[in-house]
Design goal:
The chain has eleven helices and 14 strands. The protein has about 325 residues and is an alpha/beta fold. The chain binds UDP-4-deoxy-4-formamido-beta-L-arabinopyranose. UDP-4-deoxy-4-formamido-beta-L-arabinopyranose (WQD) binds near residues 201 and 202.
């Protein structure tokens, strides 16, 4: 298949493109490089061994994005584009709604115009809201939006709704919603990884900076949660396992019965902040200094999934362990 990968120069999108090519698919990368670098496109080309068609376009710019639809014949679209910093979304909600929703609607309208009916959306475990009980299944979706603790998560839930309503209105439209838990780690080559502009919001990229001496210590946001060691528990999944989940999910486009497919992509295992720190020290051989500080607003005690549906229906399993997640993250950060 030939796939438009919106946000394809980003952390998840770049790893997905590499796995698509390994399975014989082709991709066209569209990215405005707001939160990614052209270096990622060059490194993808090194890994796929050929030129990657790349358009530096903002997916909210319908006129420009249409040039890609006009020129290329897409069999499917993968939507990774969008702002993704939870904390920032609380302080800049309108920018998040404008960018994330507008880009999604723009893509869907162009898909309609150019008869592209297969879409895969990068959703998030955040759509389960703060009251979901782990292990979480696909049926546990938060029923009301304000159960979700931040505008970033609400944009994910809204785009899921837009795609679902579109699929109900148009049976040719085929939607796959992939709800990521916590993507971490980097490509074995050390050429691709999580490379956020500015201070990392998420745990592992922050730990990576402490382990490589770029930041003095990690702030552990609270150790009074109802968990094994009091620190937050999450379901960390290696980004390459996550990418392989997208390739496995392409088979949904052959299923004619239903046209909305929803899967959790996680390991089903919960890991605490302190357990991750210890694993990182073991993998990197470096000390990771930390200080316990106050809880971060919006954090929940634990969040991990039941990946049984993806395992069974997609034949997909997360295979890489926490040690490998830390080792590949460290190798990438060290490069
Ligand atoms: C993990 C744990 C923190 C940083 C969010 C989004 C999700 C996805 C991933 C975008 C928590 C603790 C963190 C730090 C810490 N979004 N922590 N010190 O919040 O589970 O998920 O990011 O890709 O949709 O909801 O991820 O990595 O920020 O936090 O103690 O400096 O680490 O309290 O327990 P989170 P996270």
């Amino acid at each position: 298949m030939k796939i438009l990968v919106a946000g394809g120069a980003g952390y998840i999108g770049s790893h997905v493109i590499v796995e698509l090519y390994k399975k014989g698919h082709k991709a066209v990368c569209v990215d405005n490089l707001y939160n990614s670098k052209i270096k990622a496109v060059k490194n993808i080309e090194k890994l796929i061994g050929e030129k990657l068609p790349f358009y530096k376009i903002d997916c909210c710019d319908k006129k420009k994005l249409e040039t890609a639809f006009k020129k290329e014949k897409f069999d499917a679209v993968m939507m990774f584009q969008g702002y993704k910093a939870v904390g920032e979304s609380v302080t800049k909600p309108v920018a998040y709604y404008r960018n994330n929703i507008d880009s999604a609607l723009t893509i869907i309208e162009l898909m309609d115009k150019y008869n592209v009916h297969n879409v895969m959306f990068s959703s998030s475990a955040t759509v389960y809201g703060k009251n979901a009980k782990s292990p979480i299944t696909e049926k546990d979706k938060a029923l009301i939006l304000n159960d979700i603790t931040n505008p970033y998560g609400e944009t994910k839930a809204m785009i899921e709704k837009i795609l679902t309503d579109k699929a109900h209105a148009d049976k040719r439209f085929n939607v796959v919603l992939l709800r990521y838990f916590n993507p971490v780690g980097a490509h074995d080559s050390g050429l691709l990884g999580e490379d956020p502009n500015g201070l990392p919001n998420n745990l592992m990229p922050y730990v990576a900076k402490v382990a490589t001496g770029k930041l003095p210590y990690l702030k552990v946001y609270g150790n009074d949660y109802k968990t094994k060691d009091g620190t937050g528990v999450r379901d960390y999944i290696h980004v390459v396992d996550l990418a392989l989940g997208h390739v496995a999910a392409l088979k949904c486009y052959k299923k004619k019965k239903e046209n909305v497919h929803i899967y959790n992509l996680g390991t089903g295992k919960g890991t605490s902040v302190l357990e991750l720190v210890k694993a990182y020290e073991k993998a990197s051989g470096k000390k990771v200094k930390y200080k316990i500080v106050a809880r971060r607003a919006g954090d929940v005690d634990r969040l991990y999934c039941k990946p049984a549906k993806a395992n069974k229906e997609l034949g997909w399993y997360a295979k890489r362990d926490l040690y490998n997640m830390c080792l590949t993250s460290y190798n990438f950060e060290n490069k």
